[in-house]
């Protein structure tokens, strides 16, 4: 049996998620209902078509319409470059399952979603972590990255925009990472489930392009969950110009998926057809709630500080308290005594930090941050 590490973040969330009033553990832009999308867009979801559709496997590869809509999110990707999966988590898993084997070396930029380092290790690869530092604004040290690359480095993995830090690796730095990978003919997996949530870039700053648009061996994973507020569809994808890799994905996928749900496929099509209004709603939510978070951090008088997020839905807040309470203990007590969920940095290997998901409802951010301030006030 393959060896598998416990997924610390998911286990922490599971402990409290349904027993709290203020949820700052969430990473999706506050999930939407079909009614809300209908009223924002003025376009009706075709419930009649759904009711008349036979509940069959339908298209094994995902409907042509859905793959067309997903390819439209990229510059160079065509429908044949897209593999539909169960969530972004399925896309990441399928990527490692299709490429990684014992004898391979994989470099992962951390902190990030634990799946991205645990799964290649589970498939027998030697995994090295490039640790990003708060003092560097969580930007990668490229010399360090270069020095870590070995002949057998199969893949460099990062997540942009990033969970948990909310930072964006700039277009320039991404292109230097591509140069490093190219020299060694390594793949790059970029988990892009938060694209295109680049909501708070500096004036005139261009967002980085998708890795699949700029590197032949670049693999982009995407999702309906975060940016498009439709995690309930459990629908994600892999996109790449590397035909051999895409074929390997299809071959593996036949053994563990067959197809995604045709109901999810129809709903995802509808959401993507109306993506402009969904994105506009979500950019506004990101920016407005980030303002509230910034105010709370300021009000903490130095007990909380952070690298201000430029994208995605979370911030990685550094906690400066002196009474010896760990952030894990803090998060446990906050959940139990204040009914407020935050994720301790320990789950990412960063004690002393809290991940705050701030793109849930406004009342989660207002109420949750008020409770967190109250908690740290006397510490
Ligand atoms: C970076 C990252 N990748 C992938 C996922 C998985 O999300 P989903 O399977 O809902 O797309 C998450 C969820 O938190 C995430 O933060």
From TrEMBL:
Keyword annotations from UniProtKB, A to Z: Pyridoxal phosphate
Pfam families attached to this UniProt entry: Aminotran_1_2
Protein's UniProt keywords contain Hydrolase: no
SUPFAM superfamilies named in the record: PLP-dependent transferases
Keyword Disulfide bond appears in the UniProt entry: no
GO function terms (MF aspect): catalytic activity; pyridoxal phosphate binding
Start and end residues of each Aminotransferase class I/classII large domain: 51-363
Gene3D superfamilies per the UniProt record, alphabetical: Aspartate Aminotransferase, domain 1, Type I PLP-dependent aspartate aminotransferase-like (Major domain)
Xref: InterPro entries: Aminotransferase_I/II_large, NHTrfase_class1_PyrdxlP-BS, PyrdxlP-dep_Trfase, PyrdxlP-dep_Trfase_major, PyrdxlP-dep_Trfase_small
Entry's family note: Belongs to the class-I pyridoxal-phosphate-dependent aminotransferase family.
PANTHER family named in the record: AMINOTRANSFERASE FUNCTION, HYPOTHETICAL (EUROFUNG)
The protein's name in its UniProt record: DEKNAAC100664
Species this protein is from: Brettanomyces naardenensis
């Amino acid at each position: 049996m393959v060896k598998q590490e416990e997924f610390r973040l998911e286990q922490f969330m599971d402990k409290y998620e349904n027993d709290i009033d203020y949820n700052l553990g969430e990473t999706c832009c506050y999930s939407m209902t079909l009614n809300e999308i209908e009223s924002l867009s003025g376009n009706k979801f075709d419930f009649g078509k759904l009711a008349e559709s036979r509940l069959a496997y339908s298209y094994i590869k995902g409907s042509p319409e859905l793959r067309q809509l997903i390819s439209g999110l990229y510059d160079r990707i065509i429908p044949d470059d897209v593999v539909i999966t169960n969530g972004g988590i399925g896309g990441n898993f399928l990527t490692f399952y299709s490429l990684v084997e014992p004898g391979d070396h994989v470099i992962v930029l951390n902190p990030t979603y634990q799946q991205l380092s645990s799964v290649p290790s589970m498939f027998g690869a030697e995994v090295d972590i490039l640790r990003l530092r708060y003092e560097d604004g969580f930007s990668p040290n490229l010399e360090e990255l270069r020095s870590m690359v070995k002949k057998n480095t199969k893949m460099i993995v990062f997540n942009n925009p990033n969970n948990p830090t909310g930072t964006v690796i700039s277009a320039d730095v991404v292109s230097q990472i591509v140069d490093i990978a190219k020299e060694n003919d390594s793949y790059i997996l970029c988990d892009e489930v938060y694209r295109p949530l680049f909501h708070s870039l500096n004036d005139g700053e261009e967002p980085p392009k998708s890795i699949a648009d700029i590197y032949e061996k670049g693999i982009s994973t995407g999702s309906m969950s975060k940016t498009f507020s439709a995690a309930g569809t459990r629908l994600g994808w892999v996109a790449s110009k590397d035909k051999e890799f895409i074929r390997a994905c299809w071959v593996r996928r036949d053994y563990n998926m067959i197809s995604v749900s045709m109901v999810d496929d129809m709903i995802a099509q509808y959401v993507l057809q109306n993506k402009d209004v969904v994105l506009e709603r979500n950019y506004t939510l990101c920016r407005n709630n980030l303002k509230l978070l910034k105010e709370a951090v300021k009000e903490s008088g130095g007990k909380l500080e952070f690298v201000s997020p430029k994208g995605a839905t979370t911030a990685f807040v550094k906690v400066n308290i002196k009474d010896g309470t760990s952030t894990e203990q803090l998060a446990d007590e906050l959940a139990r005594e204040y009914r407020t969920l935050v994720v301790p940095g320990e789950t990412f290997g960063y004690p002393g930090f809290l991940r705050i998901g701030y793109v849930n409802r406004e009342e989660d951010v207002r109420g949750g941050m008020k409770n967190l301030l109250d908690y740290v006030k006397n510490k």
